[in-house]
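[09:14] KT: can someone run the structure on this one? pasting the chain below
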Amino acid sequence: MYDFELQKPTSVAEAVAALADGSAQALAGGQTLIPTMKQRLADPGTLVSLMAIPALQGVAMTSSGLSIGATTTHAVVALSALAHYPALAALAGQIGDPAVRNRGTIGGSIANNDPSACYPAAILASNAVIVTNAREIAADDYFQGMFATALEEGEIVTAVRFPIPLQAAYVKFPQPASRFALVGAFVARFEDGVRVAVTGASNNGAFRWNAAETALSADFIVQALAGLVLPADDMIADLHGSAEYRAHLCAVMLKRAVLAA
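[09:31] RB: done, structure tokens below
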């Protein structure tokens, strides 16, 4: 690990000012960033920890849905969201292991946008809103490919707002060592239709499965998915599974999610 300076602002304004330095990088849990730095694959001159900012922490119900502060840990989401959004709480409780769940944060996860992370599927399927220090970003506009988001330089996630669906569930096939999703499917039924999002499968990161949404919006039963197949062209192929295997798992995980919902 290279030498670096650590700053711990106590307000969002202080954090944004600290990040104006071109060599500074935000730290919100560090479950990806710190291992990367240890391997000397990243060399930020300054780390700006967001963990001491009270405004970025906590889970609360509002008139527009469930609001989760960016530095709220997975463990807290799993506990505090249970009464309001059980599917989201269950997702958070499956992330990594206890050490990861007690350090990793929702904001850090979606800012990193790992293609196998769980939260992006929940955010897309829930039609959530990502709140930053500068604006609000719709879920469909936020994720822009593997490790890519709509965040501008120096912009930080402050909260995520989740509308509460009528029914929802998340099911994933975990990679045994990392507990990342080899494939994960989140389904959410709202009054105006069904949204489906898949993570872990595509080279472009989490995505919505539009054909499945149309089928389930017409009839929210597993049988509505009969015959639906995703093309393997864009799927991840690695030592854990071929592109064709992941395409097959997408349908399997979605059917299980519909049954769970």
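[09:33] KT: thanks! The mean pLDDT is 94.
[09:34] RB: yep, looked fine to me
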